[in-house]
User: Which sequence fits this backbone?
């Protein structure tokens, strides 16, 4: 009788285990990525090769071109875009910085853009943890700055952002398709 009870108990637990399997979402078509200034900061930190403290990082999802016409078609000119896919792109500053002579305090913000054929408006907004630009509210803008478009001969297949060191700080380089932008950040 003990063996029968033990067998039934084991069967009950194994059935519960099978029913409680976690369903994970499918792999996203636009994977999330993160860029730091200085570049590769977390890797440098564990390798004990850090020569400067982190200033900024950007967290964004990377949509793919996949043969599509991006600017003026998939993304309308003159409309606010989340600078990536899925959640609104976020930029975090680890200390105060200046962009276009505007002081931006240490903190986490959302990052949007308004594409145009010759220039973009880059927006830093106080609202975070939001999806896309559906609930974008201009009243929460900290900064709007116009940046000229640089047309590239080489196509960037996956939307990308990276920080590039300059004499006065770093540029946040934004690229997709044949478009490249540099947002100067002073620190």
Assistant:
């Amino acid at each position: 009788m003990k063996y029968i009870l033990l067998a039934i108990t084991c069967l009950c637990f194994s059935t519960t285990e099978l029913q409680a399997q976690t369903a994970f979402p499918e792999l996203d078509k636009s994977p999330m990525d993160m860029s730091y200034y200085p570049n590769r900061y977390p890797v440098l930190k564990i390798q004990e090769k850090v020569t400067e403290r982190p200033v900024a990082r950007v967290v964004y999802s990377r949509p793919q071109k996949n043969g599509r016409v991006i600017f003026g078609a998939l993304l309308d000119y003159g409309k606010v875009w989340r600078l990536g896919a899925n959640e609104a792109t976020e930029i975090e500053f680890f200390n105060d910085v200046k962009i276009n002579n505007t002081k931006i305090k240490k903190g986490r913000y959302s990052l949007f853009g308004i594409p145009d054929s010759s220039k973009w408006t880059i927006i830093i907004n106080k609202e975070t943890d939001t999806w896309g630009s559906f609930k974008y509210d201009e009243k929460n803008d900290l900064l709007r700055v116009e940046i000229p478009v640089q047309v590239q001969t080489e196509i960037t297949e996956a939307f990308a952002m990276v920080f590039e060191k300059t004499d006065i700080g770093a540029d946040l380089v934004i690229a997709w398709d044949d478009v490249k932008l540099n947002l100067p950040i002073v620190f």
